[in-house]
Design brief:
With 327 residues, the chain is α/β, with parallel strands linked by helices. It is 38% helix and 15% strand. The protein has a domain of 222 residues: Alpha-Beta Barrel (TIM Barrel). Bound molecules: ligand PBG. Homooctamer.
Amino acid sequence: MTDRPYIRPRRLRTTPAMRRLVAQTSLEPRHLVLPVFVADGLSEPNPIASMPGVVQHTIDSVRRAAAEAVEAGVGGLMLFGVPAAGDKDVTGSGADDPDGILNRALAALRSDLGDSTVLMADTCLDEFTDHGHCGVLDDAGRVDNDATLERYVSMALAQVEAGAHLLGPSGMMDGQVGAIRAALDDAGHTDAGILAYTAKYSSAFYGPFREAVGSSLQGDRRTYQQDPANRDEAIRELELDLAEGADIVMVKPAMSYLDIVRDVAEAVVVPVAAYQISGEYSMITAAAERGWIDRDAAILESLTSIRRAGADIVLTYWATEVAARLH
Ligand code: PBG
């Protein structure tokens, strides 16, 4: 025995009720945002082989998936558009065309759901360009930052006019938040917000997404996305995005960048989002399919870790499923 007070941290782990009482991090449906892919020219949803359980939607099926997600209580939806292969071009003209797939899907969902959820749109050209880059190219074939900003502005206006509440510029062009904010304000769209992809790293874990959006990219995005080796640069990007008017800031990917999520969360008072990307989804799914990990537990643990690191909002392909499970 002992004459010292017997300190036993395990006392607080003895029963499920005790653990629930002292749990520091919570996961609620409203914290989760569902990314969805809507493709043009499909007669039925098209499964994405490298993301089992995720599909490219038709407009009809995305309406059902969105209604189900909202019913489950998710915080919002992030839409990506996938034009038919023959409709991609060098400037990504489908992106700001009101009849482009993404804008049609936004209009359909806004008319179904009104303000009952938060509709977000990917404001980026890579799904729409035939070369697959997030911007337009100069004569030398390099991504032209300022010419791209003009395209983002046009795309942002089309998306807000179609019904988006929040725009998600994901292309990592310098000045993208400021250019979009100024254009929205000039057009009177002062209530439309910007979820800035603040620290978006050039990641190998985006692999399955490239299949999901039928990307035609040859090469990589290292001249615009951040180098995984860099930490301080995320804070530099953060300061710029805040100064340019970002309403919410995001770190992406999530799991390999939890230190960055923590850095950003400690530096700001605006909400922080993190994106659990395609490769994160696919790794857990594949390992679970092989019986190597417990799928449901791994999903919850991954999302809890991202919240614990400091994310207020988590974009995850499991949003609907997990939100429903949390009830
Ligand atoms: C680019 C974009 C990417 C993702 C979202 N927007 C991929 C990329 O940069 O190649 C990745 C999402 C995911 O992997 O789940 N506009």
